Amino acid sequence: MSKLSKRTLIRASGWAALAATAALVGCGKKEEAAPAAAPASAPAAEAPKKPEPLKVAFAYVGPVGDAGWTFAHDNARKAVEAEFGDKIVTSFVENVPESADAERVMRDLVGQGNKLIFGTTFGYMEPMLKVAADTADVKFEHATGYKSAPNMRTYDSRTYEGAYMAGVIAGSMTKSNTLGVVGSIPIPEVIRNINSFTLGAQSVNPKIKTKVVWVNKWFDPPKEGEGAGSLISGGADVLFQNTDSSAVLQKAEEKGKYAFGWDSDMSKFGPNSHLASAVINWAPYYKKAVKDALDGTWATGGVWWGVKEGAIDIVSISDKVPAEVKDKLAKVKAGLTDGSFVIWKGPIVGQDGKEILKKDAVADDKFMSGINFYVKGVEGKVPSGN
Fold first, then answer.
1. Helices (H) and strands (E) in the chain — how many of each?
2. Which of 21, 267, 274, 295 has the most CB atoms less than 10 A away?
3. At a CB cut-off of 8 Å and minimum separation 6, what does 360 contact?
4. Domains of the chain, with CATH numbers?
5. pLDDT surpassing 80 at residue 38
6. Interior CA angle at 207 toward 201 and 211, to 5°?
């Protein structure tokens, strides 16, 4: 074979090999399985939207401070926060006067988005009614009032039960048989407490007489202290109060007399003078009201809670109080709890000697809400207009 023929044969063989290789490669591509398409992802499920917290506001007549009426309300506000956590947001405004300015404050609280508003003193009643009439989607709660609306209800504590229990102690501890009371505003609530304190004292000591000084304010420590001093000068050796500060107790401490705490435990303000504190616990009601608003069961009306519901108590009773007096208190408290004991049960005689309640007659809440007279043993006159 010639060299040319060999080269031709080799070249032909090379081309044939290349062609075969190309054919194999082409066949391989055609037989390769196509990658599986990725499955379409399902739309992510939306997390349930968390409801906005209920905004709850409180209007206070005095400063929160560390004792008294407003302090007790603010303690209950904190208890509500602890109970409901992030389901609610609370706020408060202190030192709101019982005047037209209260209406401005209420409207401002509405403007801030609050849907449940508590007004914590009697004088807010008319301003709250005005604002409630203009804001049907907001619920209002008025303390110690007697007027309601479709979106405004009233609530109160039977403070006269605490006053009566304090009276039992006072009647046992006095040496002069003269008790003194520093009164705030002469409305039925306060007059009822003065009378109940006197009735409690007379239940253990029929010789009791009670003197009253009015300061015409809920919170005014200088005036409260001045009133207490006047009562002591007039012969009172055990003092009671229906005012918001600890000034009366402090004056008693200064003068070596006895006194009581009111609305909250005030024992620290009179280590030697303090006999006991008649306290209010607003937390049970505030928890109920907030729960009602949250679960949609809130309805207008009114409630009046006392010892039975855990709203009223007598606490920090001094070691100076005799054991037999403490035993009597325990029986009174148990009777108020189960309904077997009633404070305002006849016969009860007024200051003028006329019978107010006949023997065995029991005063109903309507009667209690309209008390504008003194019982026998209370000296002086009820201020005019009441």
1. 11, 14
2. 274
3. 345, 346
4. 54-158+283-308 (3.40.50.2300), 159-279+310-369 (3.40.50.2300)
5. no
6. 70
Which 3-state string (H, E, C) describes 226-281?
HHHHHHHHCCCCEEEECCCCCHHHHHHHHHCCEEEEEECCCHHHCCCCEEEEEEEC
Burial of 34 (0-12, 13-18, 19+ CB in 10 A): exposed
**Of all residues in the chain, what percent are helix, strand and coil, respectively (each to 5)?**
40, 20, 40
Distance CA 233, CA 226 (A): 11
pLDDT at position 50 is 80
Using CA atoms, how far apart are residues 187 and 185, in angstroms rounded to an integer?
A: 6
Q: Report the b/e string of 142-164 with b at 16+ CB within 10 A.
A: bbbbeebeebbbbbbbbbbbbbb
Interval 64-119: pLDDT, tens: 999 999 999 999 999 999 999 999 999 999 999 999 899 999 999 999 999 999 99
| 3 state DSSP class of 142 | strand
Q: What angle do CA 52, 54, 55 make, to 5 degrees?
A: 115
Predicted local confidence at residue 2, as pLDDT: 39
Over residues 331-366, the pLDDT tens digits come to 999 999 999 999 999 999 999 999 999 999 999 999
Angle formed by the axes of helices 159-173 and 188-202, nearest 10°: 40
pTM of the model: 0.86
- What tens digit of pLDDT does each residue of 117-145 get? 999 999 999 999 999 999 999 999 999 99
Task: Give the pLDDT confidence of 292-314 residue by residue, as tens digits.
Answer: 999 999 999 999 999 999 999 99
Exposed e or buried b per residue across 229-264, where buried means at least 16 C-beta atoms within 10 angstroms of its C-beta:
bebbeeebbbbbbbbbbbbbbbbbbebebbbbbbbb
What 3-state class would DSSP assign to 46? coil
Measured from the Cβ of residue 207, the count of other Cβ atoms closer than 10 Å reads 12
- In the chain, the largest separation of any two C-alpha atoms, in whole Å, equals 160
Which residues, in sequence order, are bridge partners of residue 355?
349
- The number of beta carbons lying within 10 Å of the beta carbon of residue 187 is 18
